[in-house]
Structure formats: C-alpha cells, structure tokens
Specification:
homotetramer, mainly alpha
C-alpha cells in the first residue's frame, strides 16, 4: 500500500510549500518576458509613450495570466483545504499539474507578442484546458482514495466533477472563434465566470459546505 | 457564509508562504534586468569602469525598488501579525495586491533605463500608489469582516486608514514635479518617511499597541 | 559533536523550505530559456506554426527536464520522510546536491538547442549522474550518522544503496550510444523506469516499509 | 517598545520563509546569466566543445558563487538557531542584508564575463565584504537586544564578533592582489577557510556550544 501523509505532517507541508513556490515563480516570471523598450531620444515623453503603447498587449496578457494562474491557485488552495491526507499518487499527479502551470509563462509571452494571431489563442486555451482537466483528475483521485476530510455525498461529488471543468468547456468553445476574432475568444473565456456563479446557485445541498 | 481559516491552520500558512515567495522573487528579479556590459578590451579596468558607470541608474533603481518592496513586505508582515483569521475575500484581495507587487520589476527596469524621462517616474509612482491604496483596502476589509485579533477603537482605525496611504499622497504629489526634475520627484518620495514618523507621534492612544 | 535538529524544529523546516524553493525555481526557470519566436507577418498562422515547430526540441527538453527534476524531488521527499533529524553534515551535503539541481537548467537549454549533438546528451547525462550519486551519499550519511527514524536492516540498506543509483548506470551507459544516435540515448534513459519496478519486486522484506 | 515575535510564532516563520526563498532564488538565478552558445554547425562536437570551453569562467563563477552564497545561508541558518525571538529591528536589518544577497548574481555574472579584469574581482570582493559585515551587525543586535536563547559570556561574544568577519579581512586583502593576478586573489579568498578552522581551535570555552 502507498504511504499516506496526514495534514499535520512535515511531508504534507512540503508538497504545499513546493507547490506554492512554483505558483509564485510562474506568476512573477510573467513580467520578465516584457523587455524595456529601446528609444532613440531617451528623455522624450512622447517616444516612450509610443513605445509603451506598443507593449499594451504584453501588459494585458500579464494581467490576464496573473488572474488565470491566481484563480487556479485559489482553486488549489480550496481543494487542499478539503484534504485530510495525501498519498504518493496525489503527489505525483500534482507534479503533472504543476508542469503545465510552470509552462504557462510561454503561452502568455506568445499571446503578448502575437495577440492577433489565432494560433496564440489556441495554444493558450489548450494549456489552460489541460490544467482544468487535471484539477478534475486530482479531485477524483482524492475522492476515490479517501483523502477528503469529509466524504461528499454522490450528488455533491458529481456536482464538483461537473462544475470544475466548466472553464475547460469555455476555452474549448473559444478556439474556433479565435480564428474569426481573437478579442471575441477572450470575451468567451470571461463568460465562464457568470456561469460558474449560476452553477453554484443550482448546487445540491451540502455542496456549499464543501466549496463555499 | 465565506470560509474562515484561523491563524494556526495550514490554509493561513499557505497564503503567507505563497505571498512571501512572490515578494522574494520580485525583489530578486530586479537584478536580472541589469545586463553585464559588453566592452571591447576585456581586461581594461577603465573601460569596464566606464561601462559600469553607465549602469549607475540601474544600480540606484535596484536599491530603491528593493527598499520600496522591502518596506511593503514589512508593512504586510505587520498587518498579518494583527490578523486572527483570513476569509476567502481577503485571500482574493491579497492576490490583486500581489499582482502589482509582481509587476513592479517592469517599472523598476524602466526607471533604471530612462531615469531622466518623467514618464518613467509617473508609471513607477502610479504602480506604487496602487499598492498603497490596496493596503488600505486590505486593512478596511480585515476591520469590517472582524478578522483582527484585537478590534481597534474607531479612533485608532481611522488613524490607520489615514496613516497608511500617506506614501500614496507623496507619490501623487511627486508626479507633476517629475516633469520639472526627476531627481526632485525622488526627493519628494523620501519626504514621506519623516512625515510617517510625525504622524506616529500624533497617534491616538492604543495605536501604538497595534502598529508599534 | 555536530548539532542535530529534530524533525519538529524550525531548523529542520528551514532546510526543506530552502530546498523546495530551489527545486521549484529550477523547474520553473526551464521555460524561461525558451524565447518567443520572431516572425515577419505577425498574424500568419502558418508562419507562427513553423516557428513553433522549430522550437519542438525545446518543448520536449522542458518536459523531460521537468519530469527528471520532479522525479528527484519525489525521491528527496521520500528520503526526508525517513529522517528523524538532520545534522550539520547532511545540511552541507544537501547544498552540494542542490548546486547540481540548480545547474540543470543550463544542460536542459543546451539539449533543447542542440538535441542532435552528442555532447549535449553527454553533459546532461553527467549532470544527472552526479545528482543520483549524491543521493546515495546523502542516504549513506543518514544511515551512518543515525539520522533515520527506523534503522533499516543491513539487507535493506544494501538494497537502497544499489537501487538508488540505477538511473546513474543508465545515464552512463547511454553516453557512448549518444554518439550513434541521440534519440537512442534518450530511449535508454527511460529504460531505467521498468528496471526500477523490477528491482522493487526483488526487494528484501522490510524495504517496502521504507521505500514503498 | 518594539514588537517581539517568539520562535514559535507565524511571524518568526514568515521572516525565514521569505529569507530562504530569496536565498534559493539568488542561487538559482546564477545559472540564468549563462547563455547557451550559438555555433554554426549545430551537430559538430568539436565546435560545441570549443564554445563551452569559452564559457568555463562562467561555470567556475557559478560554482564559486553557489558555494559563497551557500556558506552564507549555512551561517544564517546557524545564527537563527541561536535566536529565541526576533524584533522589528532585526527584521529590518535582515532586509538590508538580503539586498546584498539579492544583488550578488550581478557581480557573479560580471566575474564570469571578465574573470581577468581586476575590477570584477574588486566589485565581487566588496559585495561579499558588505554581506559579512552585516552578519556581524545582525549578531551584535541580537546580543544587545537580548534575542539569543542562551546569552553568551563576554568572552564568547567577543570571539563571535572577531571570528565572523574573518572572510571580510581576506576579501579586503585580496583586492590589491587582484591587480597583479585575478587567480591569486581567488586563492587568497579560499585562505579564509583554514584560518576559520584555526580560529575555532582557539575558541574560548562555551563557544563550541554556541557555534559548533
């Protein structure tokens, strides 16, 4: 049988400090890819303003990605708050999940550079979709391997498995639209937020205690 | 109702380790933007000295930004020491606050490159102003959602709300001066330090126990 | 006599948070070395697809290295879970081990850039080999200095010392093959995984409790 | 009076996790400044070997700096193990100390690029000297503000204040020699290690318990 580490063990804490360190770095590295522009007259306000204006897609994609990764961190924080213990399998699955978090700064930089190119949107959407899918894998494993502090009812469990990948659906739906207009694709991404709130209202009894 | 995590929970600790990791990275990345200069005669002392001299604005902005972010970290450390618990809202607000901490290396690099350009100062001042404003938002939420270990008296609370954004005022005031002289603008920033000490002397009774 | 820090001390925890921070950074930095490609027509899908295709070796080496470092992190996590205490010597040895973890992003970037060049494979294999060898050094010291919570039997100990460097053997064996085909060398690396499982089946009694 | 945070408080832990995060990043960033070389025939072993050979100063300075910062981390780890509590002043002083740790990757990269240039050695030596001097400042403050768990005798205290800056002396002495030969200067740096051991033998009674 696999080793289990309870909530108060050094081993449980290590997974989280490694995890949160990786999140913090991925979020901070996003800014590194934005290079300071080179201008000919270094004291010219208008020239610097123009140069910075050219970087606006980079700034937008920094804040979008910070929000996206931040949202995943919040979801991970909430998920771990439900765990009573971790086993080797969930630590391994978590590493796979982190690989795609660590990779995200590249699609972000790509999006900042080629915001008008549908391929940038597609790659970003696929990366984010994989992360959301892995969230479901983590939750399923925690449920099946009995790692949750309070076993949810089957109703609540089904709700969690359906509600969690909602953003994936939106990212997938956005892909064909990216070929018409990249801005439209981004608008569709943000559509997942109100739907999330709507879903929460239809949550079965007991779900609130788990995900509230 | 929103979930609450008490001071001794794994969840409270995670927010802080994520937070401190992000601060540590933002402060360390400041140096990465300073590129090693290229010189023609690699063993010439005078040539290397000249090349490094050209980077002096970069060195100054590294140490200014390290001091600025360090000061925010100290304030955050003090703020958290007053908290008995965290709720979901304060964790979310803290992420917004961290987005602007994570962004700061860019204005810092800009300032290092274009120290004489008023626009660099303005962008830096606006970024720092937003961070200070978010500090007040965090403190207000903690007060209203009853997260503080010792509820301050209304007098002390009002003092905290006024004293905390003092640096914002100075950064805002410095903006028009930046167009006259960038050095003058920087001098005005440092003016906030003695005023902070003066304000502390006029603090109502009980404030010392909270902010001392 | 050297100082000892028990499992529940601040000092034991610090070594781990430093350690895990370094691992998290090394794994996240892997993506930084992948530069966003420059294309002439920024909205052309086919041009961007071609440019990204040229980066496929970089993507492959990112995920290989993430898996390799992740595997070392898992092994380190398991190793520390066996420790009852740390002494100064193991903290020092751990730093030497971390130096080669921190260095790994360079061979990774080299491999991504020169995947067809046998020398990239050799350098990568040597780096990984040193890390595996240092794992054995750490385990031996922990055994001899009585740092393990449960002293393994000599049989189990010998098994641990032999099983742990298995990947080293594979990396060493792969080196000459790298000069014939770099892809072949990579295939040999992955050969260590099934052998690891086979070895585990031949483990002496009691080893499962330690390494399972 | 200033706030005090005892060893088991969240606040004590935060200073350390911030501190160790910064150390880990500074040590890992050292490798980022080493760029993968560009060669004309990407599959040529000899060309890649030549290109890597040109980077040997960068590799040497990576491992020297990793050892140097690692040694400071070990000293900091030992120092904190003596503390019963922290006050605001020591947290502030620690930030000043960290500023120079965070800056070290720049002199390291400079040394890697211009190993033959005496000015690189001087800048590196000055940076390292400042860090060692700040170690003494931290130790003095801890002694005077009564933060140490076991107050050392005046003899032991004086020994600590003298022994700790020994490396500073060596770095200062090495500066003029750097103008004759940079290799000689590096050899002098390493001279501090045996002297440190000699000093330890002459330590007054009770020092071993503190620094052993």
């Amino acid at each position: 049988m696999s080793r289990r580490y309870s909530r108060d063990s050094v081993e449980f804490a290590r997974v989280l400090s490694f995890n949160d360190g990786l999140f913090a770095i991925a979020m901070t590295l996003l800014v590194v890819s934005i290079a300071v522009p080179t201008i000919s007259d270094s004291s010219s306000i208008s020239e610097l303003a123009d140069a910075l204006n050219d970087l606006s897609a980079n700034f937008i994609s920094f804040f979008i990605s910070f929000a996206v990764i931040g949202r995943y961190w919040l979801a991970h924080h909430l998920f771990v708050s439900l765990l009573a213990a971790m086993d080797q399998a969930i630590i391994g699955l978590n590493l796979v999940y982190l690989a795609f978090i660590a990779f995200l700064p590249f699609p972000t930089a790509l999006l900042g550079e080629y915001f008008e190119n549908p391929l940038s949107i597609v790659i970003y959407a696929v990366n984010v979709g994989i992360i959301s899918a892995l969230e479901v894998v983590l939750f399923r494993h925690a449920y099946r391997a009995d790692l949750l502090a309070q076993k949810p009812t089957p109703d609540v469990y089904r709700f969690g498995v359906i509600a969690s990948p909602t953003p994936v659906a939106f990212f997938v739906i956005s892909i064909p639209f990216a070929f018409i207009s990249t801005t439209l694709a981004v608008v569709i991404w943000f559509g997942s937020a109100p739907l999330g709130i709507m879903l929460q209202r239809r949550a079965p009894e007991g779900a609130e205690k788990l995900f509230g």
